Every structure is written in C-alpha cells, then in structure tokens.
Amino acid sequence: MTYLKEKLRGVVNNNSTLWRLKRSIYDRIRNAPESRAPSWVECPQDVQIDTLNYCNLSCKFCNVKAGGAYDIPRGRMSDEMLKYIIDYWAEYPQMKHICPYVNGEPLLDDRLPWICEYSQKKGMKVIVDTNGTLYEHRDYLVHPNMTLVRFSLSAITRETYEEVHGADKFYEALNTFHYVAKKAYPSQQIELHFMVCKDNEHEVDDWIKYFEGFKRKIFPLHRMPDIQLASEDALGEDSTWIQDVSSQEAWEATRPLFIYPNGQRERQIMPKYKTCQGMAYAVMWDGTILQCTDSPPSYNYGKVPEVDMLEAWHKRNRDRINSPACRACNAKRPDWFKTLRKLDLATNEEVEDYLQWRNKNE
After folding, report:
1. CATH ID of 39-320, from 3.40.50.300, 2.40.70.10, 3.20.20.70, 3.20.20.105
2. Which sign, positive or negative, has the C-alpha torsion 270, 275, 278, 279?
C-alpha cells in the first residue's frame, strides 16, 4: 500500500495537470475559515527531539554558531528520556512524526536506526534533516519508516561549501546524497535544502539545475531582532533576501521556495489558520521544551518529565502573543495576532497590548 501511495504521488507531481489540481485543492484548504482547521491547537503533529546537540559543521547561518544566547551546554539525551518521549506521544493519534534533530547532526547518533524501528512499532514515521557529511553512516538514512530525508547542502562547489558550511566536506555530502537517492525505499522521499546567504547566492541557479528531478527548497534568512543571534557575516549589508515584512505581499516574498521534481515552483505560504511555521514540538537533549526552534532556549516551558508535554504545548499556544521571542520574529504572518484572536488564543486586551508594543518598536 505504501509503495502504491508513493507511485501515485510521483505520477501527480510529474504531471502538470494533476499537479495543478492538487495545488488547487491545497489552496482551498489553506484558505479555509480558521474555525475549520486548528487541529494543531490541541495536539502537535511532529515532535523534534534533540537526541544530541553536537554537530560536525560550523555553518555561517546557524544560530548555534552565533553563540550568545544560543551558547548552550552540549550533551546527549538519555535512552530513558528518548523512549519516554516517543512512548508519550504514541498515545496521541494526531502525532505523526518523530524528528530526531534540533541543533545537532542526527547521523552522529548511533541510535537513529533504533529510533526508526521503535517509532514504527509505535505507529509514527520518522523525518530527518541532515548535512549528510558522515558518509560512513549513510545506511542510517535508508529505512522504510524514515519517510522523509532532507539534505542541507547550500552550495554546488567545494570552495563555496567550505566557506558556507565551515568544513571541506562537499564531496562527502554529495556522495551520501547520491547513495541514499539510489538505495532509498519506495516509501522514502528526498528533499534538498539551500539556505541563501551572501557567500552562496551566486550558486542558486546551478544548484537548482544540478538537482533537477528532486524536490528542492530554498530558504531566505530571517531574523528575530534583539533575540535571534544569527551569524552577521552571513547577512551582508545589502541583503536582497531579507526584506521588509510589514505587508502580506512582502512577507510572502520572504517565504521558502519549493521547486518540485516536475519543475513547478511554489512559495511555502502556510494556511491562514497557522500564524507561523513553528508548529512542531521541540525538546532539547536535556528535556527542555522550547518555545521555538529559532529562539534561544531561555524561552521554554519546563523540562521533561517534570512537566506534562501536552500541557506545555497548550501553554505555548496561549502564550505566543505575549512571548518576546514570537513578537520579535518576522517569520510569522503580519496579521498573526488576528488569527490568534479568532482561535481564542489571545484576548482583545492582549491584541491591543501587542499593537501598542509593535507601534512603539517599529
């Protein structure tokens, strides 16, 4: 059944007429009234688990590299806590995916095959984001329950790769990608991600052409002023990929760009009922429940297992309009506070307080 589903997905994505029909259905869902779709309010669909927060690269655009508020202790999640988190969310059918990464490189964790097996036993799929440079661990990425493998490969030449990712590992990453693309199960999808910065912008077009036939995603950088300490040397003084987001049109222009295997292009515009793309649940290696994967860990909702994880999720949703991290982030919709009000996640008084804060800080 899974094989047939993947074959059908391939047929749709490579046929322009069927693809446009699929997108029109998605658009209709995306623009549905907010009252019809906020299932994520009650329970997340993905949980990101920092099973370890070590990384073998030093990417210019990485928050962790910037230090400061992101200069956090390094460690590896205990086996007991990892199993506890998976067991906890297995009780909720809304939870679909276990994602074993936040600030670390998942191929450094030799438990990745076990995570795939145990999550499958518990009825959940696995999604992995990886830099792919650990070629000796490439078989970790070939598993029928790992339904999506996303490679972060933001260059198409060895020199630019080293400049942007901080290590001479371009060919290791490329070889791992080709290996997984060849060996992947029918149930597995592969994506490639390109984070645009001033040192690799000139390679975007060649990168798109080289990986033709695969799903590609291009990310413009975004900041959270006074909070997100993204590496300044990746931004540049005249950054065309960081734009004013005061209007809906300008905000949409900053969203990640999807390029499908058939060449169709689409901006990642979240449904109206979602205020930002931070819909995943994120837990650090020490059990800290994060406000968001883009904000410093000082914005958190306690630690596992000291707090109930679903209660922390509900508190996070209620607190967003009051969170300094959310207020300062420009990845959310410009009219996000209106959506929160419609979902009863913010009172009229909170919205008014936010508007006064925004006017003062603009």
Report:
1. 3.20.20.70
2. negative
